[in-house]
Every structure is written in C-alpha cells, then in structure tokens.
C-alpha cells in the first residue's frame, strides 16, 4: 500500500509540474508582447517620440533604460537577441553575450516563440517576440522573457503541498469514519460469534447466530450455525445412544438378577424350575456379552482403530458359504435361498473376516424378518470398478425405513423383543465396516416392494492374484 501511495504521489507531482510549466509558459507568451512594446518605447533618445521623429538612443543609455525595466518584470530575465538569435543583452549576466538560443513557434499565442535553454548552469523556459532591428540601438531582433524552471517547480511543489494537505485532511476524516463503520460491521458479528460459542460451551446447543451475507463474515456465520447444528445432533445422538444402551441392558440384567437370586435363596424347589432359571441366566449373560462386543466393535470402527487385512476375496465362494450357514434356520421358516453370481465377477478387495461379518449379518436379518415361506436372494454384479452385492427379501407388515435402518438400535417393529430380533447394532456396524474397506452400504425397495440391502466394495486390483478361499476367510 505504501508503494502505491508513493507511486500515486510521484505521478501527481509530474502532472502538476507539467501543468504549472504550461501555465507559466502561457503567461510568459502573453507578457513578452507587453515587454516588447516597453522595449520599443525605450529605443528612442526621447521616450514617447513618434516613429518618424525617433532618434536612436545611445547603447549605454538604452541599456540603462533596459536595466530600469527589470524590477518591474517580477523576477523574469530580460534578454535581447540579434537576427542570428545570439544574445546581445542579458539583464542578469554579461558572460552570456553571444550565446545562441533556439526558438520555436508557440502553439498557444500567435506571433510568439518559445524556448527552453540553459543559462549560467540553470534551466529556463522563455518566450520571444520579434522586433525591428532598425530602431534598436543594439540592433536586436528579438525580445526574450525567461523564468527559471526551478522557480516554477518550487511554486508547483508549494501549490501541490497545499492541495495535498487539504486532500489528506479530508481523506483522514473520511478514513476515520470508514474505519469506525467497518470496525463496527466487523466487531459486532465477531462479538456475536464469541457469545454464541460461549453459550454452546456452556451446554446451550440450540444457540444460533443471525449473521447473513455472501462476504467472509456471512460465510463464517453460516459455517458456525452448521457446526452448532452438527454438535446438537451429535449430543442428541449421544443422549439417545446412552438411553438405548441403558434400556437394552435393563431387561437382561433384571432377568439375571431375578433368576440368580431365585437360585441363591432356594425358592426354586424342583429341578425343572432350577434348570430353566439357569438356562435363562446363561442366555441373558450371552446376550449382554454379545451387546458389549457389538458396542466395542462399533466404537473401534468409528474411532478407526480396528485392523483391516485387505485381500482378494472370492465373493461367490464367500456367499455360498454364508448361505449354507443360515440354511438350517431358513428351512425352519420354510424360506427359499437363491444366489446368482456371474462367472466373470472379479474378487473383491476386502478383509475376509469383516466381509464374513457383514454378509452373515445381512443374511441373518433376512432370515429373521422375511415373511414365512418367502424367497431370499443374494445377487452379485459388476458396477464399474466395484462389485455390488444385493441381498433382497420381501417385508412383513412392519415395513422398515431404509433411511433409518443403519441407525443404532433401530427396529422396524418396536414391540419385537431384543432377544428375538437382536439389539439393532448389526447394520450400523456393517455399514461402518464397509466404509472402512473403502466401500458403501445402503438400502432401498425394488419395484415389487422387496427390501434390498446393497453392499458395494472395490474390485481387487490384482485380478490375477489367487483369491482367498472361503474356508480361510472365516477361519
């Protein structure tokens, strides 16, 4: 900014100086005509004589008269030139006699010439007008009026300084007003942002700021509101998560306490009741352990601390093995299992153990929630550089919401017991595992109303590599 101000000041100085030179030159062009008339009046021995009765004054007398004119010129230098434009009289120096000056016609005043010369080591601007040498005692042909360029520059600098001071003072006042306005427009939203941040830190997650606009401050306000909304959603999700965990743990822990207390105090008198109580204690303990393991897996996946061993996995073999695992349960509910995997499907780049966990969860959900006697299908297809697996099944009277299926503890049928339907963490863990393997998982409905869960994983880059067999994948 300082360099810009210096350049602007320099250019302004050049323009003002040029204008001042032009103004002084025009003034000299006009003044030299008056001075030339005065010089002519002093050519005759008796001033005021008519042209026909004029007897030329002597050289010394004429020179004295010229010197007498100098105080009336206001600092200009009076010079007379002969026909060859050589100096024959100089009001300020005698050593310039004989010096030749170059004169050009003026573009401002007709009949006047202009010159820029150096005399006594100083630069001058001058105006010249022609006179008759016959009537001049010194045989002069031109009257020249000269003014030092330094004097013009000094006058220009003084005028410029005055104007710059006036402009600077006005600019300072305007700048102070602008600074006040800008500072208020900047500090007010920043103060509002600071107060809102303090409120959020104190637990008021519903606090928002009313800062709008397309400038940087407006964008900052919008970003702050988005951040506050994200924090509020995260806190709500955390509260809901803790409430759901507490609710899910309450039922098995109540059963554990009740039946274990009955076993301890001997209130169960017959062997069948004690065996049933011990069985319930064992099942509820496994349920709590399974829930704790799922919560631990979910936390590890979200934190990115779960280890992944990516390899080329034979998807067809993996699906076939997963279907064999759930086939007995499917047969108990009269479900039909179908699989279609094209022969040219390449291996997928996945962790074999985590892929088994995802497919087992998807097929297990289908077997649990599909209507009795329905058909469950598992289809694989190539989608660009990825391989997509689709597990589909008809849905019962409780149609799930595909946008919420991957939420923690979500159940399409809220009345369904956790013992029968799990705790609602399997799909959340599966989706996080898919993302950790650079894949994607989502759900939708097809044209027939069947639920489709999609798992898309990248195809293995090394297609020539030997795929990991299913037996090793789940070992």
pLDDT averaged over residues: 79
Unreliable residue runs: 417-421, 471-475
* Main β sheet profile: 6 strands, antiparallel
Radius of gyration, whole Å: 52 Å
Distance between the termini: 71 Å
The number of helical runs is 10
What portion of residues is helical? 40-55%
Strand % is 15-25%
Sequence of strands across the biggest β-sheet: 2-1-6-5-4-3
The helix/strand class is alpha+beta
Instruction: Indicate the CATH topology of the largest domain.
Output: Heat Shock Protein 90
- For the record, the CATH architecture of the largest domain stands as 2-Layer Sandwich
How many beta-strand elements? 13
CATH class of the largest domain: Alpha Beta
Shape: rod-shaped
Order of helices and strands: HHEEEEEEHHHEHEEHEEHHEEH
CATH homologous superfamily grouping of the largest domain:
Histidine kinase-like ATPase, C-terminal domain
Structure summarized in a few sentences:
With 475 residues, the chain is of the alpha+beta class.
Give a verbal description of the structure.
The structure is a single chain. The chain is an alpha+beta fold and 475 residues long. It folds into three domains: 12-158, Beta-Lactamase (2-Layer Sandwich); 216-303, Orthogonal Bundle (Helix Hairpins); 311-473, Heat Shock Protein 90 (2-Layer Sandwich), CATH 3.30.565. The protein contains ten helices and 13 strands. The strands form three sheets. The chain has a six-stranded antiparallel sheet. Strands 8-10-11-13-12 form a five-stranded mixed sheet. A hairpin with a 2-residue loop joins strand 4 (112-119) and strand 5. Helix 3 (149-201) packs parallel to helix 4 (216-265), helix 4 runs antiparallel to helix 5 (271-303) and helix 7 runs antiparallel to helix 9. It is rod-shaped and about 165 Å long. The two termini are 71 Å apart. The model is unreliable at 417-421 and 471-475 (pLDDT under 50).
């Amino acid at each position: 900014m300082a360099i810009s101000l210096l350049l602007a000041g320099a250019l302004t100085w050049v323009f003002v100086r040029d204008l001042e030179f032009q103004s002084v030159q025009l003034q000299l062009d006009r003044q030299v005509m008056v001075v030339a008339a005065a010089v002519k009046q002093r050519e005759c021995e008796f001033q005021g004589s008519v042209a026909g009765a004029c007897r030329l004054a002597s050289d010394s007398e004429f020179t004295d008269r010229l010197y007498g004119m100098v105080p009336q010129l206001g600092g200009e230098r009076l010079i007379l030139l002969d026909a060859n434009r050589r100096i024959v009289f100089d009001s300020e120096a005698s050593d310039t006699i004989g010096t030749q000056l170059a004169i050009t016609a003026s573009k401002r005043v007709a009949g006047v010439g202009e010159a820029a010369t150096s005399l006594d080591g100083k630069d001058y601007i001058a105006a010249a007008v022609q006179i008759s040498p016959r009537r001049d005692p010194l045989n002069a042909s031109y009257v020249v009026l000269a003014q030092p360029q330094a004097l013009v520059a000094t006058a220009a600098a003084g005028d410029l300084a005055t104007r710059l001071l006036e402009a600077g003072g006005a600019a300072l006042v305007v700048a102070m007003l602008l600074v006040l306005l800008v500072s208020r427009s900047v500090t007010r939203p920043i103060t509002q942002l600071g107060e809102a941040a303090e409120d959020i830190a104190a637990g008021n997650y519903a606090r928002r700021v009313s800062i709008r606009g397309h400038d940087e401050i407006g964008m900052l306000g919008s970003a702050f509101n988005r951040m506050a909304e994200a924090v509020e959603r995260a806190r709500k999700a955390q509260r809901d998560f803790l409430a759901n965990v507490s609710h899910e743990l309450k039922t098995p822990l109540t059963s554990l306490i009740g039946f274990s207390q009955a076993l301890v105090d001997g209130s169960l008198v017959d062997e069948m009741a004690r065996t049933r109580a011990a069985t319930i204690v064992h099942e509820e303990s496994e349920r709590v352990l399974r829930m704790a393991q799922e919560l631990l897996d979910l936390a590890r996946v979200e934190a990115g601390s779960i280890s992944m061993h990516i390899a080329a996995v034979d998807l067809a073999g993996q699906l076939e093995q997963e279907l064999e695992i759930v086939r007995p349960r499917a047969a108990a509910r009269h479900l039909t299992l179908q699989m279609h995997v094209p022969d040219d499907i390449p291996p997928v780049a996945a962790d074999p153990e985590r892929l088994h966990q995802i497919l087992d969860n998807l097929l297990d959900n289908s077997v649990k929630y599909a209507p009795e006697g329905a058909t469950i299908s598992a289809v694989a297809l190539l989608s660009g550089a990825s391989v997509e697996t689709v597990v589909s099944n008809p849905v019962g009277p409780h149609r799930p919401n595909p946008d919420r299926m991957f939420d923690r503890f979500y159940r399409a049928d809220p009345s369904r017991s956790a013992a029968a339907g799990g705790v609602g963490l399997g799909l959340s863990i599966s989706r996080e595992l898919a993302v950790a393997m650079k894949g994607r998982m989502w759900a939708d409905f097809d044209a027939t109303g069947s639920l489709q869960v999609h798992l898309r994983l990248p195809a293995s880059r090394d297609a020539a590599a030997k795929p990991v067999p299913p037996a090793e994948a789940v070992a």
